[in-house]
Every structure is written in structure tokens, then in C-alpha cells.
Give the backbone structure.
Amino acid sequence: MQIYLKYGIIFSIIFSLISLFYLLIKTLSYGRKPLYSKPQENNIKGILYAFWKGILPWEKESAKNYLLSYIAGIIYHLGIFSALFYIISLIFNLFFFNFFITILRLFLITGIICGLGLLFKRIFIPQLRLLSYPDDFFSNILVNFFLIFTLLDTFTLNIRILYFLITIILFIYIPIGKIRHCFFFFCSRALFGVFFGRRGILQKRKFN
Amino acid sequence: MKAEKSLKNPFEEKIKNVKTQDIKKALQEFISRINFDYAVFLNSCVRCSLCAKSCHYYLTFNDLKSIPSYKLNLVIKVFKKYFSFTGKKASRWIGAAELNNEMIDEWVDTLFGRCNLCGRCTLNCTMGINIPYLIRIARGALAKIGLVPPGLQSTINTALKKGNNMGISKHDWLETVKWLEEELRQEVNDSNARLPIDQKDMKYLYAINPREAMFFPMSIFAIGKIFYVTGESWTFSSTNFDVTNYGFYSGDNEAASIMSKRLVDSLKKLKCETLVLSECGHGFNSNRWEAPEWLSKKYGFEVKSILQIIAEYIKNGKIKLDPSSNQKIVTLHDPCNLVRLGGIIEEQRYILKNSVLNFVEMKPNRERNYCCGGGGGQLAMTRFAQRRLEVGKIKAEQIKKTGAKIVAAPCHNCIDQLNELNKHYKLGVKIKTISEIVADALIIKQ
């Protein structure tokens, strides 16, 4: 049974990647308009800013204003990446040292706490709830389940079938719902960097 | 009351009576404007709403409709409904919605009435989504079916019909320049001092905001004085002198292109080297950054803000300034389109540090500044005037905290709003352009 579910996970990952690739092709089909205005600064500097300094909490007023949510978001995503690392390792039968398992559990536990915190925030803050759609709640719950079952799997093999099933659902859902942002995030930040970078807004300049 | 109703009704009736073919037309315009960049952004919002407190509308009203991600999602809903598989098949699940009369009503009220297109939300967006430019696309779709709020549309109509947004005739413009030239001659005590018009082969073609000619002629005078002292090679155009572009605000790219092309044509006709733009935020963003995109061509000439030119003059010692001529405390307002979206950030500071004794920064400043509330076409849309004044409170508070007596504002749109805020919030300050402050400090060798 488990071996079939393992194949199921591989197929769901392939489905996810193909769908995301299709989304990329569809997005590209809208066309990349060439930029005609003469840049004031280098695009690359802007992109570097977008992925480094531009996401540091002291650089972003929004991060300062909502520091708890911002930190929770980062920890939540660290938990997700840890869980992804774990499932890929399982598929390829990679061996874990106990030390890594301990670190992984730490990331997963904090990730789950933060994920649930963000879910409760979405449920209990009226403005955020009104701004949310079923997809927002479902995506969060699905990812939280994925983290919880990953954590449980590090302790016991008894829940493995359920764990693999949840993983399959997650990968299939990625391109359908809001989780697709994991893919668009990189494009979006890069475009942000290009826009502000070429206009010379993000790089501090002295005039003298 | 009756009179008020009759004034309001035509536009509201128009919204109520939007027909299916109009909606199709709006959608066609909408999708024709979506490119790869915008499609990425439309797929990226996670509705985390961390952008909320970066918006001065939200800080003022603390309501759902003022959250940038709410505004953005009005656009995303429509995109998903018509142009995404999941949106077509599971609208409610992912929040896709039709563009119907109700949505159009909300687009007008929220996308025109609750946004200055200032870009502060973008800078603070976790995903980096260019929210104002997506809102502008939705505005453009409304413009296509004639649903731009009347005040803003009439400004555009005047500019398209008369060549400038104030409808100043060529005769009146020439008379104004002539009068200012006489003033300049008296001021510098030189009968050869000139404000040149339609001179060919000059280095600079200088474009003004028509409000300067109409209400603030002293800012034109100030530029004349600065160019006189430097002995600059420059000229005005007698016909196409308008730096503004309200098509930028309405989202109407067709109108925006026509307006920008006029300046390009004038520059070519007069064989000037550089297009120099007066102190106008959206005029700078439009002509420096957006116009080449609207016209789909690379300019073979430079487009510069007058602030860049003045800063260079000071740096190269072409003009000498006496800061003691400006003794009062001066603070600086950063116009969003010039600074956060335009990239002219340090020049104005360099100029002020050289021309006044006491310069105090507002907090926050530079690209993190708050919009004054006048941008995005708000000054032209009287239906949202009350909101505009209310959101301006944040800027008024910023000014108060500096203790300044003079607010330097390198944008005539901002100057209008700041003047209103000055009265409304009893700030007791004087609003000036940077050029005026420089002109006051200019040392003229006889």
C-alpha cells in the first residue's frame, strides 16, 4: 500500500510541477512588454534588494507594524520547507541523523504553532475574515495538516498512510488554489526589484 | 438638495445603466493591458493584508475598503472570473466575481475614490505587487466605457481639446510670458533678460504645469531668473507647454499618449536636446517613465526634472546661493510620483540644504513618505473631496511636527492639496516650490 502511495506522491509532485509550468506558460502568453524608458539605475541592484534587504523586517514598515504576523509567516514557511525536505527524503529513502530529526521537529513544531496562529488570525480578525475566501482557509488548514502529519511521522510509522494521502492532496492542490503563490513569489519579487531598481528608488543615492 | 441630486445623477445613472456590450468592451480593454508582469502580480496576492497600515486611507478610515489588498482584490476577482480556469469553475471558492453594475459601482468608488496611486502599499507588500498600476488598469477599463468621474474626465477633455488642462489659449500664454519677462527685466535690472518662446536649437525645452501660468506665475518667474543667472540655452513652446497628464490618473493610455506625444513633437520641432519638466510629480512620472511605454519607443533625448538641473547648477557652481535669504524653518514634502515612483530623491534635499538656513525632514520621508492625498486625480474628482481632505490629516500632522513655517513641495498638484490642508487644519505655513526658494536665495551679479 505504502509503495503505491509513494508513487502517488511522485505523480502528484509531477502533476503539480506540470501544472505550475502550464501556469507559467499561460502567464508568459500575456507577453513581456519591452521597457522603453531609459533606466536610471541597474535592474540587478533592484532585484538583489527585493530578495535581501527589501524583506528584512526593519526595512519594511509593514513588517514593523505587524511584527508578530511577519515573524509567524517566516517561521511557518520555514516549517513548510522543512516538511518538504522531509517528504522528499522519504521518497528517495535518504537517511537522517538523529540530530537533523531534532532540528526538523523544532522547525515543524514552531511552524505548526505559527500556521495555526495565522489561521486563527484570519478567522477572528473581522476585516481579514471578510477579505478571505474558502480557498484561503482551506489552503492554510491543508498545509497545517501536512506539517502536523510530518511531525507525527517523525515519531511513529502508524500514521504514514494518512500522511502520504494528505501529501498527495497538498501537491495536487498547489497549482489550483492560493498556495501557487509559492511559485509566483519569486517572479513577483523580481519584478518589484526591476520596477523600483531601474528607477533608482531602492538604492540610496547621495547627490553631491 | 434637488440641485445636488441633479448634479450627481447623470454619472450614477450611467453606472446603473451599463450595458452588456459596455462590460465586454471594458473587459477587452482590461485584458489587452495585462502583460506577463501584471499576470504574475494578479496571481500573487495572498491577502495577508500586511499592507493595510501602509495606506493613508486605511490609517484614516480604518475600514475594509481602504485596505490595499481589498482594492487589489476587486481587480483580481474580475481577472480570475474571466481569465482563469479555477475562477470560471469555482468562483466562490477562490473569490472570483463578475464585472457587473455592482462591481463597476465599487470599482468607481474604491479604485477611483480610495486610492492616490501613490505606491506606498507596493513598497510594503510582502509579495512586491505593483498595486497602483493594477488599479490603473481597472481605471483604464472604466475609461474605455466613459466611466471616469466627471471632474477628472473634463480635465482630460480640456487638455485634449485645448492643448493644456487649464484651457489656456495661446494668446493668454504668450501674454503671461511677456508680462513675466518684463518682471524679470526689472528684477535683474537687465533689459536683455528674456523668457524665450519657440527658440530653435536650444539645449532645454521647458514644460510647465498650466496651473503655474494661471495661479502661480511666480514659479515660472523663478525658473526664468535661475536660467537667466546661468545664461542657459532654453525655451518654452508657444503651443505644447503642458507637463501634466491626467490620462495617467484616469488610466486612459490613449489620451495619455496623445498628451505626452505633444511634448515630444514640440521638442523635435524646436530641435531641443532635453525635455525639462517643471515641478510636477505625475508629470515627471508620466513623461520620464511612462510615456516611452505608452508610445512604445525609446526616446532619443533626455527627460529631466528641473530639480536635477538646479542641483547640477549648484554642484558646478553655476549659481551661487545665499541661504540667509531663507531664514525660516523649511520642511520638504516628497511627492509620490516624483520620489517613490520617479526616483528623484536626493536632488531636492541637496538644493534645499544649499538655499535655506534651517531645513527639517518630515518623518517618514523620501520613498517612505505619505501621500498628501491630492494624487491619483483626487483633486479633480470633487465627489471624493471630503475623503481627500480627511486623508490629508496624516500629512498635516507630519508638517505640524516639523515646526516648519515653509513647506517646499516640488509638485503643483501637491501644492493645491497642501494649500487646502493648510486652511483646513490651520497649519499656518506657506507652501512654495523649490524653484521659488532657490530664486529667493539667488545671488545675482550685476
